[in-house]
Amino acid sequence: xxxxxxxxxxxxxxxxxxxxxxxxxxxxxxxxxxxxxxxxxxxxxxxxxxxxxxxxxxxxxxxxxxxxxxxxxxxxxxxxxxxxxxxxxxxxxxxxxxxxxxxxxxxxxxxxxxxxxxxxxxxxxxxxxxxxxxxxxxxxxxxxxxxxxxxxxxxxxxxxxxxxxxxxxxxxxxxxxxxxxxxxxxxxxxxxxxxxxxxxxxxxxxxxxxxxxxxxxxxxxxxxxxxxxxxxxxxxxxxxxxxxxxxxxxxxxxxxxxxxxxxxxxxxxxxxxxxxxxxxxxxxxxxxxxxxxxxxxxxxxxxxxxxxxxxxxxxxxxxxxxxxxxxxxxxxxxxxxxxxxxxxxxxxxxxxxxxxxxxxxxxxxxxxxxxxxxxxxxxxxxxxxxxxxxxxxxxxxxxxxxxxxxxxxxxxxxxxxxxxxxxxxxxxxxxxxxxxxxxxxxxxxxxxxxxxxxxxxxxxxxxxxxxxxxxxxxxxxxxxxxxxxxxxxxxxxxxxxxxxxxxxxxxxxxxxxxxxxxxxxxxxxxxxxxxxxxxxxxxxxxxxxxxxxxxxxxxxxxxxxxxxxxxxxxxxxxxxxxxxxxxxxxxxxxxxxxxxxxxxxxxxxxxxxxxxxxxxxxxxxxxxxxxxxxxxxxxxxxxxxxxxxxxxxxxxxxxxxxxxxxxxxxxxxxxxxxxxxxxxxxxxxxxxxxxxxxxxxxxxxxxxxxxxxxxxxxxxxxxxxxxxxxxxxxxxxxxxx
Length: 737
Hints:
The protein is mostly helical. Helices cover 64% and strands 2% of the residues. A hairpin with a 2-residue loop joins strand 1 and strand 2 (108-109).
């Protein structure tokens, strides 16, 4: 407790003394190199100089609060007194920091009543920068250490710090932006507060109509959304499980298992609209399959791909890798002890799989379904490309935000419906995996670590699902990728490399000159994704440990809050971020920081759910053994759980990086000319009809991401529960004995 409190106070005091308090133009410290004597400038000086020489007295708490906390930690006081000093100094200092940030803006007092108390303020302040951010984080760490010292979180400072960091992060970058935007649901067209406006919008027959059941043309968009999401949730979970079982227990051999594993992940490293365009090339009115059906069988398939079948097919392609990433960690972490025990009791392989293996996989299956369901209800890209007249909530929200109607109230109301649906599914998932049920398979006892092979019937079923899907995936990518190497996609199939040259050309004139059109956007995307991915994965694993192992008030509410930004369309998140972070104190709009923050909290749930599924397999006795031997929460997390959570770490890191590289909807409103991302570049090329250039950039991104994922796999490694190697199916006579 004392070490954590002193560390937080030291961070805050150093930031107040030496770091620029307000935000530089591009939000990074390197910009200050171009400003001589920046530490004396009113817009950039550290807090202590701002308060002493610029007359900004409201910044003194940023200096005094960490100094008081340091004094409390150094003084020879009893533990409880030190904890009280940490809690008061950190808590009051953080509260005063928030109050002054909200009370003073770019035009002086933000609250008119303050002028009567303190007089006219001729000064102003802009968005908080590195100094202010580090002071806030240091004070929060100090306050959390004080809470632990006072007995909260069972006296463990590591647990308190994790809960505080995750809670404040979700509050600032998920709850507040969404709350500000969703408040429009209770305002009328003129912006006045009107709670009945939400009721009126919810009564729209286009939302809840059941005309399709009575022979009418269509059902309401809510029922369409639920139908697609349920089918996608089940479909992605089944396909993800089939691939995960084949890769880990299918005895396919390295030559087949590794390509199958990479093929499964391929769709999530694909930039937007490429899958939709590929499906149109195969199944569209002039697609390969449609033309073959017409030539061979005289069948006119028409536009069947546009509507429910197209959306379902595209979302199954797009979201099956998410289920696979969650389930591969759970299947790899399934210790074979219980299955070996069932085998010793003469149970058949099919019965062992049905009564032992599948029940132990329930946390992974439930989390995979939850993610697939929520991804489906929030996806608008595939629905826009392939939806046709089949409308879902995501497209309705998108057109309410950016369409001709420009109705933020309707968009906010429909977003509330999405959140309620997500909440309902979350509660069901918690009921299935919560309570007194145990899914532990990894305890403190050693075992052979050799998982049994899949029963023959289960193996055949998995192969029957996975191999056709893999073949369709290969065909889809062959057709889609070919667009980068022909003159005009679908019209002039003359081979060419001009699209790649146009995108990534370079010259050696007085050094390397990157002259291609796509270099700037691709390098910017790589930089921001490389910053966001490890933070997202780390936050996800910490949150999974916190929600699975720690007990504290509000744990369930905080766990659900992490899903909020995942459960609404990306366009809503983008607009919410613009609205919340366009003015002081968090003036992040126009900087790379707002994109990084959006990446982190938008993609956090996948690493969290993957980590929780893996954590459910690990017996708590391992944590307790660490505590018995004198370890604290950090020791148990770092030395015991982290080595066993490698598959979940890979899943979180993989998903965070590739989604940062391929996302479009959440950031399309946040990018500027300096922070243009590769996906925005691709979409702009698609809008202009330059498909060759767009696909060329997409192909390079896919290759680049696969290379990065391979390096991440090598760096993190894989979890090994036992020492024996699996016996291949093809053995010499008598080898089985």
